Amino acid sequence: MMNSPLIDYTLHLADTTLILSQRNAEWCGHGPILEQDIAITNISLDLLGQSRNFYQYAATLIGGDASEDSLAYLRKEREFKNLLLVEQANGDWGQTILRQYLYSQFQYLLFEKLQQCNDAQLAAIAAKSIKETTYHVRWSSEWVIRLGDGTEESHTRMLKAIDELWRYTGEMFVPAAYETIVEVSRLKNEWQQKVMNIFSEATLSIPEKMFMQNGGKNGIHTEQLGYILTDLQYLQRTYPGAEW
Amino acid sequence: MPVQDFEQLFQKKIDNEVKIEPKDWMPDAYRKTNIRQISQHAHSEIVGMLPEGNWISRAPSLKRKAILIAKVQDEAGHGLYLYSAAETLGMSREEMINDLHSGKAKYSSIFNYPTLTWADMGAVGWLVDGAAILNQVMLCRTSYGPYARAMVRICKEESFHQRQGFETLLVLSRGTDEQKAMCQDAINRWWWPSLMMFGPKDSESTNSDQSMKWKIKRKTNDELRQQFIDMAAEQVKVLGMTLPDEKLKWNAERKHYDFGEIDWNEFWNVVKGNGPCNKQRLEARRKAHEEGQWVREAAMAFAEKRRSKQKAA
Predict the structure, then answer these.
(1) What's the whole-number mean pLDDT along residues B192-218?
(2) What separation in angstroms does the CA of A140 have from each of A40, A43, A102, A220, B66?
């Protein structure tokens, strides 16, 4: 497959949104409250739409037979460039909404910059998507606050979720070699400040020193990704070349 | 006014096609029948999310995935309108859900069948939604106002789902030999259960007469079933597939398709809880509810804290 920093970067954005969509969709039909089942499924759909825009753009950059589906369904574990955070298991509702909040808060800051970048297509996708992201941030941050400051049990569960997921947030701000369009390291302070504000309203706090896991952007994932792709790619792999 | 006069007035409204509204007087049995039927319908939407949700993670293209997620989400939305419509009759959503989980309330038996291959997403859309729509189109004119209005919205989305289901099968029917076989197999498995969705034969149906008089229903089970068979028997030709019924044959005299005998033992067996997925479906719903308990409690506790803070301020 053809490689260029722009293609790799676009695939990184596509993979991250697809994998988070795939994870969130696992809740469909199993949510804690009907209205919230609908909300998380909506977010899954938004992210899927974003990922399709990124994949379609990557496909035009690659040319030939590349399509959104060949890129999503026929690349392997080591080729996926999504953030480690988004492939982490749903866990309980607290862990799912914390994962969503940590990512959406980052995605918002990223898309703010991306919509002003020189690549017209990426800028357009970011400008279109940021409206959705704004809602994702609002929805997920409200839930972080509600659960953090809800009952003793929900507070304890949020502490556990932070302990589970925080280690995967550092990677967002460590640029991969192909990641030159937006300087992600410069988003870190603002992200941390915003997260701190929400956490403080939620009576939660940011872990002080925690080792940060890295690798997703370069295709070194946690063991969870292989299973996600096994499900995701099952039909395309079983019936090569079929149209659906 | 004596009760008989109320009843006469009520029946007069029905006869004159005036909708019954939540605050109107209505016979207890009318209220109960509507609560039973609307809540059962709501539960069917919610339980119905499970067999299709089963294929979201494995949908074969991003476009199909998006369509499927949106569809299952629509079902959740339908469940919401219907619970709200039933609540206007004086039963809370929580009570209805408890009745579902305890097994007291029923949902459509069709969702107790498994979705085994991708083609089932097409067959469910075409046949199951197709059968449901005939019932729902009739219900757009049902006598209870909130139910009728909910159905108008639902019907629009359902007919879209049915077209999507048919289109999914159409693509398979024009695909590889394996895809064609997958398509035919799904039709074979879903055909008879879809016919059972219309309920027992008119001669066996206990609730039918009164429901017709009150215009809760406007067509009998057998009339709707025949309408469905006539429609599907034509549509299946477009797919180049067959329906698994050797006795299916156009009857020029009746101007309807004749069809074979439905296996009513199977029907009653699934109604009684012995279908292939009754246990899993109910367990999935109970599990979602139980695991969501702490979330609902936290949301309530938080709302309470906010209220007392506002009061103090």
Answers:
(1) 89
(2) 9, 10, 9, 28, 22
Measured between CA atoms, the residue of chain A closest to residue B68 is: A45
Q: Is residue A36 part of a domain?
A: yes
Closest CA–CA distance from residue B111 to any residue of chain A (Å): 13
Bridge partners for B20 per DSSP: B144
Chain A nearest-CA distance from B130, in A, is 21
Q: Do A28 and B53 touch (CB under 8 A)?
A: yes
Do A29 and B53 lie within an 8 Å CB cutoff? yes
Mean pLDDT over the full length of chain A: 97
What does the pLDDT look like over B43-78, one tens digit per residue? Answer: 999 999 999 999 999 999 999 999 999 999 999 999
Q: Taking the CB of residue B82, how many other CB atoms lie within 10 A of it?
A: 26
Contacts of B292 in chain A (CB under 8 A): 31-33, 93
| Residue B205 binned pLDDT confidence (cut-offs 50, 70, 90) | confident
Verify whether the Cβ–Cβ distance A45 to B69 is below 8 Å.
yes
pLDDT at position B209 is 82
* pLDDT (average), residues A154-165: 98
Q: Residue B144 in 3-state DSSP?
A: strand
Task: Quote the pLDDT of residue A1.
Answer: 54
**What SS3 state is found at A77?**
helix
In a domain, A244, yes or no: no
Tokens of A37: 């089942």
Instruction: Kindly report whether the global pTM for this prediction surpasses the value 0.80.
Output: yes
Place of tokens 């215009």: B215
Nearest to A151 by CA among A186, A203, A194, A103: A203
The backbone torsions φ and ψ at residue B140, rounded to the nearest 5 degrees and listed phi first, read -60, -20
CATH number of the domain that A230 lies in? Answer: 1.20.1260.10
User: 3-class SS at B268?
Assistant: helix
Nearest CB partner across the interface for B66, out of A29, A49, A153: A49
The candidate with the shortest Cα–Cα distance to B70, out of B97, B49, B93, B98, is: B49
User: CB contact, 8 Å: B291 with chain A?
Assistant: yes
Could you say which of B49, B57, B294 has the minimum Cβ distance to residue A154?
B294
pLDDT tens track for B90-117: 999 999 999 999 999 999 999 999 999 9
- ipTM greater than cut 0.90: yes
pLDDT of residue B312: 85
CB contacts of B122 in chain A (<8 Å) are none
Q: Domain range holding A160?
A: 5-206+213-238
CB contact under 8 A, A32 and B296: yes
Name residue B249's beta-bridge partners: B258
Give the total number of structural domains in chain A: 1
**Residue A107 lies inside a defined structural domain of this protein:** yes
- Determine whether the interchain pair A149/B60 forms a contact, defined as Cβ–Cβ distance below 8 Å: no
Distances in whole angstroms, Cα of residue B177 to Cα of each of A234, A239, B143, B184: 18, 11, 49, 11
